Amino acid sequence: MSPDLPRALQEIAYEEFAQEYLRNLPPEHFMEATPQATQREITLSSLALVKARRPDVQVFNELLVQYPRRGKRKPGQVVPDNMVVLTDQPTRAVTSYNVPLEPDRPFWMLEYVSKGSRRKDYEDSFQKYERELKVPYYLVFYPDAGELTLYRHNKRKYVTVKPDEHGRYAIPELDLEAGILDGWVRFWHKGELLTLPADLDAARREADELRKRLEAAERELAELRARLGQR
Known about the structure:
Blueprint: H1 7-23, H2 34-53, E1 57-61, E2 64-67, E3 76-78, E4 82-86, E5 96-98, E6 106-112, H3 122-132, E7 137-142, E8 147-153, E9 158-160, E10 169-171, E11 176-181, E12 184-189, E13 192-193, H4 197-229
Parallel strand pairs: 2-5, 6-7
Antiparallel strand pairs: 1-4, 2-3, 4-6, 7-8, 8-9, 10-11, 11-12, 12-13
């Protein structure tokens, strides 16, 4: 697509390409394995906490990304499981994230690959992130095997990020680390593990149980004092 087109015409063209992409999706694209869905939920819950601390962190879920390709009329297209964009400007994305029309480019792509999944061509996605979009970070997680890899773009290609002594992979620009905990990818912000709703529920139940034990102990102590006072 020519960048010389007026912005309004580019918006129309990108929307038409997005609708064409949707119409041509194979049935297996709409079938997501439970491990993929679980990890997506964990990621979205965790990054929502990061966004609350850093408004420039924009998080997207299974959104079509479209971008121009040199000499090609049709834009490049890819759908990451999750995507992070760093910008303090409002984005325009509705049915697709059209890179030339947005305030910034994708910063981090995340993919969750289940055994036997045929939803996407992950090798093709890797090449698009590395060679065409040049996304700074790319995380890929295999829930069935518990394998996590974080790639960083060195302006030529992707190189793997090495884990620290805790087995975590750092993204310094976000003060964020990713690592495996209890079989899932969890996230730490400034060294603090980002809690999940289930974690909060467990902590609340534990606090309620502790309160009940304290109240029971206070009643026993009051009864003991009462008996001693009667002697």
